[in-house]
Structure prediction request, 68 residues.
Amino acid sequence: MILDKIALLLVIIGAINWGLIGIFRFDLVASIFGGQAAMFSRIIYTLVGAAGLWCISLLFRDREAVKS
Prediction:
């Protein structure tokens, strides 16, 4: 499903950003989009958070068998 892939991509972006914050004290999203309080940064943070919540559902889904 395309929404699952988009959500996973946003979660990966968020994980990389948190890794940069933890290791280097560098917030990549804030630096690209004008600071943590900037509207576009807040939108990105919100989308990453929503994607994380969506990815929780991936843990509880049945996987279809792949046909070869």
